[in-house]
Amino acid sequence: MENGIPDKIVVAVDTIILAMGQSGLEVMLVKLKNKPYENCWALPGSVVGVFESLEETAKRILVKRVGDSRLHLEQLYCFGNPNRDARGRSISVAYFVLLSNKEKVNSHLTEQYLDMKWFNVNNLPEMAFDHREIVKVAMEKLAYKLDEIEIIRPLLPTKFTLSELQRVYEILSGKKIDKRNFIKKVKNDEMVVPTMEMKTGEAYRPAKLFRFK
Amino acid sequence: MENGIPDKIVVAVDTIILAMGQSGLEVMLVKLKNKPYENCWALPGSVVGVFESLEETAKRILVKRVGDSRLHLEQLYCFGNPNRDARGRSISVAYFVLLSNKEKVNSHLTEQYLDMKWFNVNNLPEMAFDHREIVKVAMEKLAYKLDEIEIIRPLLPTKFTLSELQRVYEILSGKKIDKRNFIKKVKNDEMVVPTMEMKTGEAYRPAKLFRFK
């Protein structure tokens, strides 16, 4: 610091870890320990190491939070408003990742945070920094990239019904979709192929199971 | 520096300034003055000021290079490989902008650079840092966003023929497009509307002029 002016910008990576839960699409948040953000919820993040690429930092966070570094990570955006961090000037390069199974997450609380929880993306708590905005930008990007298989694939089991696929589209786009139009679209896109199996054992009549091409 | 390990990461913004030229899509490059990149070509850039947002830095560069800050800027990606800059650890947040008229650019050489030139994006010189890769990523993004009007609009005059529109699509996608399919697509997308005018005075038969909706 020189005359109160910070002479460097801290570079951080924050991760938006998403998975399907009972309530719909959920994001993993951590409760911060240190002032001035004590008890605030935030995205899991870290300062970038001097010898790390940005993606390596994101993978390091992932290993710590979900015990897996082989997931499909994608850079979302770089956030750099001068007042985004009350502790000093920082920028955050945000990465998002979609998990196929929240329950399998091999996660544990470390000394770094007070708590860790999944929140529905439409029902977030008060959050530190600009992390609420970061989640919003992630949702916009997901809606925009809805037709990319890398976005959809992790959110469904290996075999799924068209109703299950439609639900994922509706959750990511935030819009109700007409069933007949959806089936037409799925056929046109040739993204999925039918299997020989049916989904049974539920309160509905049996439905054909599909898989991604 | 401490034991040869840099204790901070420099945050820079680099701009990919694009315009249509005689040769197709062209990018503005500057020739660097200082070692170790003396005489190397690079994208115009700047270190982010302590009180500036990333977008403000990008606008500052634009004003200096093209004399206009009201252009549609878009963040491309944040590049952060540890070895991308021989002078020390730095990250670059890249922004791209599409100019409607290269000839109108009110540009001038400043003491910062040795030279400034437009290069066809498919015929770039040797470039400093990872700037060649940055241009490549920008081209991929443009091809991906080809159907967004903000991408296409600046590259055409107010009124244009369908052949001119097709040429822009071909240049941005890097692919030859079948004329009949293109006309079908244009009609489906409802992105353009016909005007009452015709383009004449060239070696071809007169063609209908269109404008964006």
TrEMBL record, chains A, B:
The record ties this protein, via PROSITE patterns, to:
NUDIX
What SUPFAM superfamilies does the database record attribute to this sequence? Nudix, Winged helix' DNA-binding domain
Highest taxon of the lineage: Bacteria
Q: Which InterPro entries match?
A: NUDIX_hydrolase-like_dom_sf (IPR015797), NUDIX_hydrolase_dom (IPR000086), WH-like_DNA-bd_sf (IPR036388), WH_DNA-bd_sf (IPR036390), WHD_NrtR (IPR054105)
- Domain Nudix hydrolase intervals: 8-143
Name of protein: Nudix hydrolase domain-containing protein
Q: What is the lineage of its organism?
A: Bacteria, Candidatus Shapironibacteriota
